[in-house]
Design goal:
Layout lengths: L1 H7 L62 H10 L6 H6 L5 E6 L15 E6 L2 E6 L7 E7 L4 E8 L10 H4 L20 E3 L5 E5 L8 E2 L1 H10 L6 H11 L4 E3 L14
Parallel strand pairs: 1-9
Antiparallel strand pairs: 1-2, 1-8, 2-3, 3-4, 4-5, 5-7, 6-7
This protein binds heme C (HEC).
């Protein structure tokens, strides 16, 4: 079953020359140009090569890039990036192509603000990270690390960060009470149980959004292309952190993964 995620996420791992899965410092000539491989951006010039990338959201320019496959790898990458660290900097530095699915679902901790500001899921193989485009949960990065079929360890990071983060922080953040009685995520994600992979971690059911709550990739890209920074600076910065720094592609949860409606 583990392969399904990679297939449906359109993961191109095998065809990537640079390898994947680990944090790397980039090469001397790396810069952003190695990441900007997409030929789909209408503004790309065919004669002079690629347009300059948008200004960085990072505290200082960096060539660091990573494709985290676990919460531990994501935390390690977070701790390498320059501080103060915004969520947009983290998103900007994730390896491309970035595989994204968007939903207008409003039943979650990061509810979509309608179809124009959907909730986004980023896929690195079966590892899922979730961010909002606007509104509630805008500073939160949610994790779902797969453990067995349709189960994932849940954790969360709140940005901006001004200090190195301990590996326990994303897990203790979501605890419902210090006694270890489960997480706030367990309210919706059923069958929660302690996860031995990390201290104080819990795993629970993995959930996808149903098809009728999908926001198409074309619509999502349109929101980026139409975004007016003068009117909505933070929302446009978030969309730019995702779309402005290299190739982005449509992804999907495996069809067989349950939705929240399957509980009824
Ligand atoms: C109010 C209900 C609700 C709560 C609370 C909730 N989620 Fe979810 N979550 C959902 C729904 C519904 C989905 C399916 C996608 C969608 O509709 O947005 C989902 C999907 C996910 C996914 C995608 C796949 C997977 O592994 O499940 C992740 C990751 C996730 N949530 C993380 C979290 C984390 C971390 C927390 C706690 C901090 C949390 N969620 C709390 C409703 C909730």
């Amino acid at each position: 079953m583990r392969g399904l995620f990679a297939l449906t996420a359109g993961c191109t791992g095998g065809s990537e020359p640079a390898g994947s899965g680990t944090t790397s410092g980039g090469t001397a000539t790396g810069e952003a140009s190695t990441l900007t491989t997409g030929g789909t951006t209408p503004t790309t010039s065919s004669t002079t090569g690629e347009p300059p990338p948008p200004p960085t959201a990072c505290a200082e320019p960096t060539t660091l890039s990573a494709a985290p496959r676990t919460i531990a790898e994501a935390v390690a990458f977070i701790n390498e990036l320059p501080q103060p660290l915004t969520l947009d900097c983290f998103l900007e530095r994730l390896e491309r192509p970035l595989a994204i699915a968007a939903t207008k679902s409003v039943i979650s901790l990061q509810p979509a603000e309608g179809a124009s500001s959907p909730r986004l899921f980023l896929f690195f193989g079966e590892f899922v990270m979730s961010v909002a485009v606007d509104g509630h949960g805008f500073q939160l990065l949610e994790f779902g690390e797969p453990v067995g079929q349709w189960r994932s360890i849940k954790a969360e990071v709140s940005f901006p960060l001004t200090d190195i983060m301990g590996i326990e922080a994303p897990f203790t953040r979501v605890l419902r009470d210090p006694g270890g009685g489960g997480t706030s995520c367990g309210v919706c994600h059923g069958s929660e149980a302690p996860a031995p992979e990390y201290p104080q971690a819990f795993a629970s059911d993995a959930l996808r959004f149903p098809d009728f709550e999908l926001v198409s990739f074309a619509d999502l890209r349109g929101e980026y292309e139409r975004c007016d920074p003068a009117a909505q600076p933070e929302r446009c910065a978030r969309l730019t952190a995702l779309f402005g720094h290299g190739e982005v592609e449509a992804a999907a949860f495996p069809e067989a993964m349950p939705t929240i409606y399957d509980y009824e």
